[in-house]
Design brief:
Layout (H helix, E strand, L loop, with lengths): L12 H14 L6 H10 L18 H14 L8 H13 L2 H12 L5 E4 L15 E5 L2 E8 L10 E7 L10 E7 L5 E6 L8 E12 L3 E2 L5 H16 L51 H16 L5 H29 L6 H24 L10 H9 L4 H12 L10 H12 L22
Parallel strand pairs: 1-4
Antiparallel strand pairs: 2-3, 3-7, 4-5, 5-8, 6-7
């Protein structure tokens, strides 16, 4: 028997070479974040899967992942992250008109405008189509009144993806319209919601005579439910286990944080010329795996550091976590392949359910690894200082925050129960619960007081 040596060829070698060459010619840590993102975005490297006519390169998801990896490996500042690139952009590619694509997509890839999502309401979370925020026609504008809640990044957003009710005479799914709303107007009052982690990632937004123009309507009048579902599909794919990419920039897009004027190298750790003062507010540079893979590596490192890796139950849970992350990664690949083939299926919903399980397992095994230290948490900056001075491993704070936050993923982005309903009805063909909400005018439906 002879042994045959197999050699593998990187199918993306040419792409990597092209991108590296471009980075060598264009990356400059001394220019501003805004200047760098303009170069990166207009060259197509920020959203490479988008069509070439709309600031993309028409690449596959796998190719786009290679792009993100190469930018991080090169040490350059990554693409502007946030909900503009994750949700608004792909939705506008699909449903926007050419004028909107040229305006909004350019702003997204160059990071000049930050976005938030104005979907959920106090009485319309799981039943999103039951939203009661009203938009009433006033000439070529609409006057908007209502309340939104769980608005991620609302405090740093320039624009919001707003769905509002524009017709109460038709069933609830048929009278919704999707707008791009200016968040800097007097009628939009953004208030932070502090979580038990000590942070305020979410907000509630009160809309009082806010205004949106006809030109900001995405997908047409009363077609907002279809457009919103496209956004939700991108959300579940991006938030779900195995989705997303860690190469997104630490800098915040948009005008609120002011990061566009900072030195690009301050967000990557790129060395600064002698005597050059560092800009305030810098962050850590890109690189590494996705969010869930990074958490897994951190937990393994902690267990190795404090000796708990020898505990059989902890070893078993770490292996379970690794297995679940790998299954999630493969599920995400299935979703990408199905989308490329023009098909829709359960992978995004399965990915969302998988994420919930992964964060709960990460919580449990993380607290097992920390032991009694896991009961310590820094809610304020002075608390973090005190823990550091006491010699507590700085990664412990990340584990306890992850444990406290683990209750949120099964709720946001569509609850686990909603995902199971979708899979049951749309995939398994199970009957829907009896309801007349698709045939009765919204104004005639019973509502909570």
């Amino acid at each position: 028997m002879t042994v045959t040596e197999f050699t593998t060829t990187d199918p993306y070698a040419e792409l990597r070479g092209t991108l590296r060459s471009w980075l060598e010619q264009n990356w400059d840590p001394e220019i501003t974040v805004g200047e760098w993102w303009e170069r990166l975005g207009l060259a197509g490297w920020v959203a490479p899967t988008w069509p070439t006519e709309w600031f993309g390169l028409g690449m596959s998801r796998d190719e786009a992942n290679v792009v993100g990896d190469e930018i991080a490996a090169f040490g350059a500042l990554g693409a502007p992250g946030g909900l503009g690139l994750l949700l608004a952009g792909p939705t506008i590619v699909e449903y926007g008109n050419d004028e909107q694509r040229n305006l909004y997509l350019r702003q997204i890839v160059t990071g000049t405008q930050g976005w938030c999502q104005l979907f959920s309401e106090p009485q319309a979370g799981s039943d999103l189509a039951g939203l009661q925020t009203r938009a009433i026609k006033d000439g070529d504008e609409w006057i908007v009144n209502g309340q939104k809640v769980w608005t991620s990044a609302g405090h740093v957003a320039d624009l919001g993806m707003l769905i509002a009710r524009t017709n109460v005479e038709v069933p609830k799914h048929q009278g919704i319209t999707y707008f791009a709303m200016n968040m800097h107007q007097d009628g939009a009052d953004v208030r932070p919601l502090k979580e038990m982690t000590g942070r305020a990632l979410f907000n509630e937004v009160f809309l009082t005579d806010a205004r949106v123009h006809d030109d900001t309507m995405i997908g047409g009048l009363n077609n907002g439910w279809a457009v919103a579902n496209a956004t939700l599909g991108h959300e579940r794919a991006g938030l779900g286990a195995g989705g997303g990419h860690a190469a997104a920039s630490a800098a915040v897009p948009g005008t609120v944080m002011g990061h566009l004027e900072f030195r690009a190298g301050d967000f990557t750790g790129a060395p600064r010329p002698a005597g050059k003062k560092k800009s305030s507010g810098g962050g850590g540079g890109g690189g590494g795996g996705g969010m869930f893979g990074a958490a897994e590596k951190m937990l393994v490192s902690l267990a190795q550091g404090n000796g708990t890796v020898t505990d059989p139950s902890i070893r078993q849970d770490l292996m379970r976590l690794h297995t679940m992350n790998e299954i999630a990664r493969m599920t995400n690949l299935r979703a990408k392949a199905a989308k490329a083939a023009g098909k829709q299926g359960p992978p995004p919903n399965l990915a969302k359910l998988s994420m919930s399980k992964i964060v709960r397992l990460s919580r449990d095994v993380g607290l097992q690894i920390l032991g009694a230290t896991g009961m310590l948490h820094a809610y304020e900056s002075e608390d973090r200082t005190a823990l550091n001075e006491a010699g507590v491993n700085p990664f412990s704070a990340m584990v306890t925050e992850m444990a406290l936050f683990a209750q949120a993923p099964p709720i946001y982005g569509g609850t686990d129960e909603i995902q199971k309903n979708i899979i049951g009805e749309r995939v398994l063909g199970l009957p829907k619960e009896p309801s007349n909400d698709r045939t009765t005018a919204f104004k005639d439906l019973l509502k909570n007081a």
